[in-house]
Amino acid sequence: MSYQQAIGYLYGLQQQGMKFGLENIRTLMSILGNPHHAFRSVHVAGTNGKGSTSAMIESILRTSGVRTGLFTSPHLLSFTERIRINGEETGEDEVIALAEEVKTAVGKIEDFSPTFFEVVTAMAFLHFRNKGVEWAVVETGLGGRLDATNVIAPEVSVITRIGLDHCDFLGRTLCEVAKEKAGIIKEGVPVVSADHEAEAIKVVSAKSAEKHSALYTFGKEFTAGLVAESFGGITLNYSGDRDYRDLRVPLPGGHQMVNASLALKTVEVISSKFPGLRFDIAKGLTFVRWPGRLELVKDDPPVLIDGAHNPQASLALSDHLKKIVLARYRRIILVIGAMGDKDIEGILGPLLPLAAEILFAAPAYGRAASPGRLAAAAAKMGYPSIVAQSVAEAIVQAEELRQPGDLILITGSFYTIGEAKEFLGSKGVLTRLRE
Fold first, then answer.
1. Is 68 helix (H, G, I), strand (E, B) or coil?
2. What pTM does this model have?
3. Which residues are registered as beta bridge partners of 360?
4. pLDDT of residue 387
C-alpha cells in the first residue's frame, strides 16, 4: 500500500461515522493475534480529565523505568499524538505501516466494515505489542461500556469526573452517563474513582460491588489539598497509602489536583498488586506534559488555549481565569468554537461574563456549531459578539482587538484549539483525522 492509499483508507473510515459495540474490535484483535494480551494496562474513562490523568499515570510509570504505551484521543495537531511509546509520538511511517497491516487483516474478513476508531484502537494495540510495551495507559474514546478500548483486561480501572456530555450517545441523565462510564469495570479489577455527584457515585459503587472490585474514591480512601496554584501549574499535598507533601504538577488549573490524585492512587494500587515495581512519584509528576489544557502557545501577543468542551470543563476554566489569569492580564479577548451537539449555553455561561470581547468561529469539522448559532445564544444571554468565517479569521480579528495587557483565550473544542495551534505556526501531521 502506498502512503497516499494508507491515508486515503484512514480518511475513508471517518466517513462511516460512529458505531458502538465490541464485536468488531474483538474480531480485529483475533485476526491480529490478540495484541492486547501482550501488555498490562490501565483503563481510563470519564467525562473530564481523562487525558490529563492518563498522561500523569504514564509519566510516573515511564520515569520509573517501565516501558510504556499511551493511547488517547482526539489529537490536537498530529494523528501521531494518539499512540505513544515511552512518551514519544508514533512516527508517521509507523502509522502508515500499522494502517496497512490492519487494512490487510480487515480484508480477510467477509462483509466486515470496522469504524475509524476501531481501526485506530487496533493499530495502537498492535504497535504496543510490536514495541514491547510493558504497561499501556488506555483512554476510552467515548463512554466506556461499548467503547472499542473496552476489549482490554486492565489491572486498574480509573473513572475521572463524570458529567453530562455526548448525551445523544450516552444518555440524558447523569445516571445513564455513569452507567456507560462504569462499563469499563471488570470482575475483580480495582477501581479508582473521582468524587462524582451522588447519583453517579451510586452507579459506580453498585457496579464495583457487582463485579467484586475494590473501589477507591477520592475524598474517602484517598484525598488531597491544593497548596498553590499558578500560571505554570499546581502544588498539592496527597494522602493515600502514603502521604506526599508539596508535589509539583506542571499542568495549570486547580481541577488538576483531583486528576493528579487519581493518578497517584492508581500507581499505589499497581504497587500493591506488583510489589516489585517502585515508582518515583515526584519525578513522574514533574515531567508530565499534556498540551491543549490551559496552554500558553504564544507570548506576543499572549494566546492561551484550552479544550473546555462541556459545562463542567468550562466551569473549571472560568475558575482558573478568575483566580490566576485576570490577576496577570487586564482583559480577556475570547474566541470560541464549539460542536453543535454540545450544551452550548452551558459552555458559554461561565466564560462570557469574563470576556471584554467575544468572537465566534467554527472549526472545519462537520459537527461544528455555526458561529451564528453561538452568537444567537450569546445574544440571548445579553452579550454582543463578532462572527468570524474561520478559526484563523477569528484569531486575526482578536489580535486586532487586543490592547496592551490583554490576553487572547481560544477554547470551546479540541478541534478549535487544534486549528488555532496550526494557524499559529505548529506543524500538524494528518490533521484532518481529528475524531
1. strand
2. 0.94
3. 336, 387
4. 98
What is the helix (H) or strand (E) element at residue 89, kind and residue range? strand 88-89
Across-strand partners of 335? 359, 410
Residue 434 CA to residue 266 CA, distance in Å, equals 29
Strand-pair partners of 135: 40, 68
Q: Locate CATH 3.40.1190.10 in the chain.
A: 3-286
CATH number given to 3-286: 3.40.1190.10
Spatial separation of the C-alpha atoms in residues 53 and 255, rounded to whole Å: 11
> Which cell goes with 272?
500493591
SS3 of residue 92 by DSSP: helix
Contact 166, 367 (CB under 8 A): no
Q: What pLDDT does residue 325 have?
A: 97
Listed as ranges, residues in the chain with pLDDT below 70 are 1-4, 14-20, 164-172, 429-435
* 29: number of Cβ within 10 Å: 22
The whole-angstrom separation of Cα 104 and Cα 317 is 44
Cβ atoms of residues 71 and 98 within 8 Å = no
Classified as helix, coil or strand, 420 is: helix
SS3 (DSSP) at 147:
coil
Q: Is the peptide bond before 301 cis (omega within 30 degrees of 0)?
A: yes
Treating both helix axes as pointing N-terminal to C-terminal, what angle do 116-130 and 3-14 enclose, rounded to 10 degrees? 130
User: Tell me: the pLDDT tens digits for 190-238?
Assistant: 999 998 788 899 999 999 999 999 999 999 999 999 999 999 999 999 9
pLDDT for position 271: 96
CA distance 149 to 26: 10
List every span in the chain annotated with CATH 3.90.190.20.
Answer: 295-433
47: amino acid identity, one letter? T
Task: Give the CA distances from residue 115 to residues 10, 17, 21, 53, 60, in Å, rounded to whole numbers and listed in that order.
Answer: 10, 7, 11, 26, 32
Q: What is the pLDDT of residues 141-167, one digit of tens each?
A: 888 899 999 999 999 999 999 986 655
CATH of the domain spanning 295-433: 3.90.190.20
Give the whole-angstrom CA distance, residue 44 versus residue 92: 26
Per-residue model confidence (pLDDT) at position 59: 98
